[in-house]
User: Which sequence fits this backbone?
C-alpha cells in the first residue's frame, strides 16, 4: 500500500500523563516513553503507524520544552515538521495552526489528527479505517474514527452512530448522531449492549480548509490568527497567547455533529489511550500486547506478571505489572492487580483498582518540596 | 529492682530469618536488625531487657560467622561472653554448652534462655515473669514462660496449663500438662477459647545443673561432651560436630513435662517472634508498637502506613508497611496489607496474607545465580 495523495498527518504531542507518574514526568511526558515494552516510544510508534499513509507529510505540534526530545526521537522529520507551542492551549489551537500550515502548501489537502500517546494494536485495521475516513472526508465532512468498545469504559466519550452514508469508496461510514460525554458505569453498560455507540478516540480526518471553515463558524478570530501565524511564524509570539484554550471536540466536532456535518468510520483497532496504570495493565494483558514478556521464574499457577523494562522479577502467586529499569532484583509475593514502577529516584506501588488516585500523590509533591520529582 | 543473685542469661542468636528476607540475610540475620524501628537491633533490645535481671552474667551463643557482628553490637560483653558455634546444631547443644560453662562458675546458678530475635513490648511484665520463674526454678523444675495468646496463631506451639504449684514466692506458677505442636486454625481457636493454653515462646528458666541432669536422661553423651568443652574450649573443634542437632523442646522440655518436671509462669508480655512480614506488620500496629512512625503525608481516611527506616513515604488509601533505607521517594496508592522492603540491591513487595510464600522466592535465588542476594 502506498501513501494517500494529498493526505497529511498532524500529531498533537501534549498532555502531562500525570496518572502515569513517575514514568511520565513534566520534563519527559508520556508520549516520549515506551510504556508497553514494544521497543519504541508511543510517539515513535505513532510515526511508524502513520508513515505508510502519509510519507513525510507530517506535522508534530508539541510544547517548546519538548521540541528537542521530539526531534531526537523523530530525526527523519524536517525542521519545519515540528511546531513548538509557546504555551499549552489544548487541542484546537494546535490542530488549527497545523491545518493553516497545511492549507498553505496544498489547498486541497486532507489532514488526520492522531494523538502521540495512544496505543493501536491492529495496524492493518487502522490503515484501512484511515483510508476510508480520507475518502469520506473528500466529500466535505469532518470524519472521525469510532472505536468499537471492548468494555463499558467510563473514561472515554462516546459517539452515537447514525445512518450509513452509502458512499461507494467509504462503505462503512455512517453519520454521527451525536457525541456524548463520559458516561457513568450503568450508562456505559447500556451503550455497550445497544451496539450503536463507539469510543471517541479523538481521531479526526478532514479537509484542512473544511476544518478552518467549520471552526470559523464559532471562532472566526482563531482562524484568522492561525492563518496569520502560518503565513508569518514570527507572529506566533504575540498571537498564540490570545488563542482560546479549547478542545477540538467542543470547538468544532460537537457543533458540526449537531449540523449533521460529521461522519464516522467504525473500527476495531485494539486502541487505548493508556490513561492510567489500570488501563496500561489491561493493555499489556490483551492478546498480542506488544512486547509484554513474562517475569523471570514466574512460577505459581495463578501468576501473571508483566515486566516492562530491563527489570529482573521473580514472583509467586502474583498478578502484577512491573516497570523497572534499575538493576535491583524485584521479588513479588501474593499480589493481585498491583503496578510497580521502580526508578532511581521514585518507587511507586499502586493498586490498579485505585489508579485514578495517583493524581493526589503527584499534586502533593510541590508542597512536600519534591517538585523536582514531578 | 536489682539483678537476681545467681541468675544467668543465655541468648541463643541463631536462625536465618528467611521469611524476613531481604532485611534478614545469610550474612546478616534477623537478630542483627532493627525490625521495629525501635532504634536498636533485636539482639541489643534483648540485652537491654535482660541486663537489669542479670547484670553482666550473660552468654550469647552464635554462629562463628556472626561473632564479630555480635561483639560490635554488644561491646559491653566480655570476650568469654560470646560463644561461637562452629556449625549450627539447633538449640539444645547451644544451651547445653552454656549451661556447662555457667555450672563451672556457679554450681547453684539458674539460667534463663531467651532468643535474640523476639520482640517483647511489656518489659515490666517480662521482668516480673522472669523473677517468678527463677524463684520456681530454685525448687528444681524446668520453668517456662507461657505467653497469653492474643490470636489463634497456627505459627506457635502451645503449652497446656496444669494445676497451680502453690509456691509462695511464685504464686502464678502452674504445672505444665503438656507441650502441644503448632495447631491447625480450628484447634488454635479452641485453644484460645478454653483459656487453658499459652504460647510456647521457647523461654526456659532452670538450674544449670538441673538442665544437664534432665538432658542426661536421654542424651548422656551430649552432657559429657558439653562439660568437656566447657572445661577445655580447645575440644570444641573435635566434639561440637558430634553433637546431635536437636531442639531443647524435644531433647528436654517434652520428656520432662511428661514426667511432671516442668512448670510455667503464665504472662502477657506483648511478645512476638516476628517470624514473617505478616507478624511484623501486626507487631508494628499493636498498641505502643515501638518506634512505629506514620508515613509522611499519609492522608486518606483509611490510610495506615508504618515506616521503618529513613524512607520518605507518601500514601493514599493504603494499609502498608514500608522498610526502607534508600533515599528514593516512595509513593503508595490504594494498597491493602502490603509490605514493601526497599534496599539497594533488592525490592520486595509482598501481600501480608501470603507472607509464608516468601520462602519460595528465597529458595530460588541460588538457581538464578543470585546467591549473593540471599
Assistant:
Amino acid at each position: 500500500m502506498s501513501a494517500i495523495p494529498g493526505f497529511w498527518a498532524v500529531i498533537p504531542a501534549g498532555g502531562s500523563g500525570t496518572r502515569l507518574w513517575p514514568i511520565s514526568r513534566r520534563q519527559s511526558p508520556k508520549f516520549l516513553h515506551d510504556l508497553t515494552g514494544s521497543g519504541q516510544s508511543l510517539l515513535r510508534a505513532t510515526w511508524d503507524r502513520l508513515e505508510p499513509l502519509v510519507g513525510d507529510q507530517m506535522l508534530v505540534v508539541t510544547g517548546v520544552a519538548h521540541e528537542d526530545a521530539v526531534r531526537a526521537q523523530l530525526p527523519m522529520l524536517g525542521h519545519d515538521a515540528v511546531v513548538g507551542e509557546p504555551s499549552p492551549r489544548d487541542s484546537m489551537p494546535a490542530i488549527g495552526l497545523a491545518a493553516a500550515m497545511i492549507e498553505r502548501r496544498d489547498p486541497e489537502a486532507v489532514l488526520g489528527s492522531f494523538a502521540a500517546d495512544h496505543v493501536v494494536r491492529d495496524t492493518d485495521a487502522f490503515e484501512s479505517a484511515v483510508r476510508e475516513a480520507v475518502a469520506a472526508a473528500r466529500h466535505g465532512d469532518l470524519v472521525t474514527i469510532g472505536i468499537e468498545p471492548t468494555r463499558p469504559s467510563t473514561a472515554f466519550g462516546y459517539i452515537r452512530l447514525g445512518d450509513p452514508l452509502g458512499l461507494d469508496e467509504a462503505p462503512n461510514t455512517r453519520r454521527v448522531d451525536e457525541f456524548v460525554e463520559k458516561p457513568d458505569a450503568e450508562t456505559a453498560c447500556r451503550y455497550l449492549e445497544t451496539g450503536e455507540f463507539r469510543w471517541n478516540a479523538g481521531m479526526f480526518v478532514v479537509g484542512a480548509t473544511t476544518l478552518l471553515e467549520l471552526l470559523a463558524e464559532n471562532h472566526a478570530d482563531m482562524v484568522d490568527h492561525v492563518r496569520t501565524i502560518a503565513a508569518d511564524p514570527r507572529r506566533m509570539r504575540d498571537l498564540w497567547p490570545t488563542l482560546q484554550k479549547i478542545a477540538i471536540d467542543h470547538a468544532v466536532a460537537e457543533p458540526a455533529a449537531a449540523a449533521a456535518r460529521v461522519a464516522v468510520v467504525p473500527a476495531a483497532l485494539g486502541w487505548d489511550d493508556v490513561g492510567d496504570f489500570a488501563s496500561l495493565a489491561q493493555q499489556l494483558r490483551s492478546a498480542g500486547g506488544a512486547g509484554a514478556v513474562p517475569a523471570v521464574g514466574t512460577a505459581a499457577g495463578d501468576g501473571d506478571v508483566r515486566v516492562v523494562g530491563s527489570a529482573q522479577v521473580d514472583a509467586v502467586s502474583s498478578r502484577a505489572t512491573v516497570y523497572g529499569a534499575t538493576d535491583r532484583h524485584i521479588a513479588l509475593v501474593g499480589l493481585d492487580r498491583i503496578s510497580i514502577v521502580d526508578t532511581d529516584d521514585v518507587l511507586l506501588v499502586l493498586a490498579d483498582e485505585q489508579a485514578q488516585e495517583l493524581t493526589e500523590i503527584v499534586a502533593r509533591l510541590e508542597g512536600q518540596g519534591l517538585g523536582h520529582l514531578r
Residues 242 and 280 of chain A are 36 Å apart (CA to CA). DSSP finds ten helices and 18 strands in chain A.
